[in-house]
Design a protein that fits this description.
The protein is of the alpha/beta class. The protein is about 30% helix and about 25% strand. Helix 3 (about 55-70) crosses helix 4 (about 95-105). The chain is globular, with a radius of gyration of 19 Å. This is 3-oxoacyl-[acyl-carrier-protein] synthase-3.
Length: about 325
């Protein structure tokens, strides 16, 4: 039986760092104190694009070239490219098409963009893993997640402007006979908040016609805690049906959207600090790539090693949850 393993992972982020003090002063001038908010979200620093030559596509290309170099591979070795983004540089051709050219991929390489919002890269890895198992001609895949979040963040709303960072992650999936790699995944979808986080804020048709007031994320208040009970349920189900306990998981790579959510999940499952990979204090919230930036950190620090079970969990706007289990 063929298995799908993560052969290697790499990340890219811009050089410019913005720390919390900037946002303290920025919002203080507006008569707002965001110190408690930033503490709850777990923010200290975040990387943001300042160079006009950079964008989500260039970050994705840079991360891809790094992971190919780490894996001692070239673009010709890749059978499938999936570019996950919620801030595409173009809608056609696909960002994956530009990436195909940048890495010199083969003519028979399959290319596509995908968008499941912040859950996107996790969904792309899960979907690609199943596809690779089903297609005997696809042996390798390059999965990229990249969001230029600061481009569309609204200065009036700290939930995006003070919370988000820009970064990309890239992983190479490889077919193997080893007893390792992707194991299982589970979803939970409830469209109750489909109108709470919007971009373009009034839809693409109005934006193109020039009828929108702005082109920034519209974030309306909602109770984010409603996602926690189903989160507990899907993680428990994923563990149970694979004969594992929470203690059997070496590392948890969660969405880095809010430290508060991570701590609640940690408390619910009574996880040790060493099982949680947290990078939101350094990177801010990077959207689709965030669980894989956590994976990269876990591997680089030695906290994740070959043969370890790793559990991913993330959330997409609207909302959709996905939990994924693999053996690294």
């Amino acid at each position: 039986m063929k298995h799908i393993k993560i052969k290697d992972v790499a990340i890219y982020h811009p050089e410019y760092i913005v720390d919390n003090e900037f946002f303290h002063q920025f919002y203080q001038e507006k008569g707002k104190d965001v110190r408690h908010f930033l503490e709850t979200m777990g923010r200290k620093e975040r990387y943001v694009i300042k160079d006009e030559a950079e964008n989500g596509l260039t970050m994705g290309i840079a991360a891809s070239k790094r992971v190919l170099e780490r894996a001692n591979m070239s673009g010709k070795d890749i059978d499938l490219i999936v570019f996950s983004t919620q801030v595409p540089e173009t809608t056609f051709p696909t960002n994956a098409m530009f990436l195909h050219d940048a890495i010199g991929a083969d003519n028979q390489t399959i290319v596509m963009d995908s968008n499941a919002n912040c859950a996107g890269m996790t969904v792309a890895v899960e979907q690609a893993s199943y596809y690779m198992k089903a297609n005997p001609n696809v042996h390798t895949a390059l999965i990229v997640g990249s969001d230029y979040n600061s481009l569309i963040s609204n200065e009036e709303e700290e939930i995006t402007y003070a919370n988000y960072g820009d970064a990309a992650a890239a992983v190479i999936l490889e077919k193997t006979d080893e007893d390792t790699g992707f194991i299982d995944a589970i979803y939970f979808t409830d469209s109750v908040n489909r109108d709470k986080i919007l971009f373009p804020p009034e839809g693409l048709s109005k934006a193109v016609r020039g009828d929108s007031e702005n082109m920034l994320i519209k974030w309306l208040p909602f109770d984010g805690s409603i996602a926690l009970p189903p989160t507990y349920e899907i993680i428990e189900t994923l563990l149970t049906r694979n004969q594992l306990t929470a203690k059997d998981i070496k590392a948890y790579c969660f969405s880095q959207f809010a430290l508060g959510n991570i701590l609640k999940i940690q408390e619910h499952f009574q996880l040790e600090d060493k099982q949680i990979i947290y990078v939101g204090d350094k990177f801010g919230y990077t959207g689709t790539s965030s669980p894989f930036i956590a994976l990269h950190e876990g591997i680089a620090s030695g906290r994740i090693q070959r043969g370890d079970h790793v559990l991913f969990w993330t959330i997409g706007a609207g909302y959709q949850l996905v939990a994924m289990l693999l053996k690294y």
